[in-house]
């Protein structure tokens, strides 16, 4: 049956006002917050590689979408629970909350479990965090959108017969993007350099698209389906109750609780506060600059640069030493002349040249202020190359995530109550994200490096934060920092 012009006129009420008045309003978030966790250095289970690059790349992309992002590597069970607590504090009505996890994991009876780096072998579900329990707590905040991107295996734990009784509210704002199907593994790819896991390899190409989040993930699934290396082994699975066209690109319009939201944002901003760079003068007449950058919210990069030295000094170099035993500082990777030598591959193209670099990780373990020594080593022509040392003790307080004291005991009102479940032991080999195709995989045959990967560190994105008052900073570094601060 065809409609006549009169019929159309009647439906419209005699004018175009009907159509104008019924255009859907632009959906928006009252805020956007994201918690990204990448576990790779497991104490009792196979090591992983890709979570570090995955978290780094997603951090930079989500920041471009105006998400407040905290990115963390290698968290223990208590540190993960406390990080989730801090994440929940930022959620309120209308907020878009996104949780990304890369690491070992498993799924039982529809519930997904993230495995901390200190999980025993075999681990129990009581040693892990239940994603659905976190979702339940997010729902209580009346969030506008809940997105979970789980880059982990979903194999069944045959030794864990418990079925958690988690009652979720019926809402139309939940999206799960599983890197693999139920009872299947997730893979990361072997390469000569750092590279992504399969999921993020394709996700990062689509994440900035102005599309409904489920449409975006559908396209990622299609892209993954064409990837020969994992075809028939890994396929993206999407579960959603989303009834509106909500997208990660939606604008932010603060709601009624502006003051509360601002206060919470200031609390979250603490984890991005870097120490100010400083100029240090030594008795010999040498002057150095000490600067800082953040590779992740719990990984600090320090660099020392010689500003001036006495004319009669034939050699002059400054390095840092004497760190707290709690921190993960490998002397073999400290005070190297290039970022690549220090292991700072992700920031290598954005750091100043002609410096010594030190990478300090596990900042969440700091219980006291960070105190260390800057040691200046020099030799004078008249002293026949005999080396002389000068030292200065430096206190930079609690940088980055250390300010939130994630090492504290887990709060009684945290996700502990809904995550901890006294179960039978689970068998860890059934529940891990599978390692790279390099012969070390527990479940799959070895493969050579697969194509289509961008493993060049220089092609990666801008750092999270960095100080910028060294005169020899590269122009691209300064421009990147300015973008970050907007």
TrEMBL record:
One of its GO terms (biological process) is proteolysis. SUPFAM superfamilies: Caspase-like. Pfam families: MALT1_Ig (PF18703), Peptidase_C14 (PF00656). One of its GO terms (molecular function) is cysteine-type endopeptidase activity. Residues 30-108 form the Caspase family p20 domain. This is MALT1 paracaspase. It comes from Cyclopterus lumpus (Lumpsucker). The lineage of its organism: Eukaryota, Metazoa, Chordata, Craniata, Vertebrata.
């Amino acid at each position: 049956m065809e409609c006549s012009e009169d019929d159309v006129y009647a439906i419209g009420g005699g004018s175009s006002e009907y159509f104008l008045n019924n255009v859907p309003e632009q959906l928006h978030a009252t805020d956007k917050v994201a918690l990204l966790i990448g576990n790779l250095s497991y104490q009792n289970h196979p090591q992983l590689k890709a979570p570090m690059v995955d978290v780094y790349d997603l951090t930079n992309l989500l920041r471009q979408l105006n998400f407040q992002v905290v990115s963390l590597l290698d968290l223990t069970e208590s540190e993960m629970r406390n990080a989730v607590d801090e994440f929940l504090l930022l959620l309120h009505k209308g907020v878009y909350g996104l949780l990304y996890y890369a690491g070992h994991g498993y799924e039982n009876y529809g519930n997904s479990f993230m495995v901390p780096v200190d999980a025993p072998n075999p681990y129990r579900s009581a040693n892990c965090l239940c994603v659905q329990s976190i979702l339940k707590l997010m729902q209580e905040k009346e969030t506008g959108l809940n997105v979970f991107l789980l880059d982990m295996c979903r194999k069944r734990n045959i030794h864990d017969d418990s079925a958690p009784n988690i009652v979720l509210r019926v809402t139309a704002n939940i999206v799960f993007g599983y890197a693999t199907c139920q009872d299947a593994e997730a893979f990361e790819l072997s390469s000569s350099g750092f590279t992504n896991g399969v999921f993020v390899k394709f996700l990062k190409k689509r994440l900035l698209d102005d599309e409904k989040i489920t449409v975006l993930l559908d396209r990622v699934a299609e892209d993954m389906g064409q990837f020969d290396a994992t075809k028939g082994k890994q396929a993206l699975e999407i579960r959603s109750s989303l009834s509106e066209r909500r997208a990660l690109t939606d604008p932010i319009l603060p709601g009624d609780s502006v003051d509360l939201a601002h206060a919470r944002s200031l609390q979250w901003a603490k984890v991005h506060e870097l120490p100010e760079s400083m100029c240090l003068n030594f008795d010999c007449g040498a002057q150095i600059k000490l600067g800082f950058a953040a590779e992740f919210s719990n990984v600090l990069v320090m660099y020392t640069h010689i500003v001036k030295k006495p004319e009669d000094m034939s050699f002059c170099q400054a390095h840092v030493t004497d760190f707290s035993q709690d921190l993960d500082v490998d002397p073999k990777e400290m005070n190297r002349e290039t970022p690549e030598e220090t292991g700072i591959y992700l920031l290598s193209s954005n750091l100043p040249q002609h410096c010594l670099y030190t990478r300090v990780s596990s900042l969440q373990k700091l219980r006291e202020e960070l105190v260390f020594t800057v040691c200046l080593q020099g030799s004078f022509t008249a002293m026949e190359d005999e080396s002389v040392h000068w030292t200065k003790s430096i206190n930079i307080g609690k940088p980055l995530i250390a300010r939130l004291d994630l090492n504290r005991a887990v709060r009684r009102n945290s996700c502990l109550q809904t995550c901890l479940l006294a179960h039978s032991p689970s068998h860890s080999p059934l529940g891990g994200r599978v390692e790279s195709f390099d012969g070390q995989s527990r479940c799959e045959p070895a493969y050579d490096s697969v194509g289509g990967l961008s493993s060049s560190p220089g092609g990666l994105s801008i750092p999270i934060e960095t100080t910028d008052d060294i005169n020899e900073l590269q122009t691209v570094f300064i421009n990147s920092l300015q973008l970050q601060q907007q």
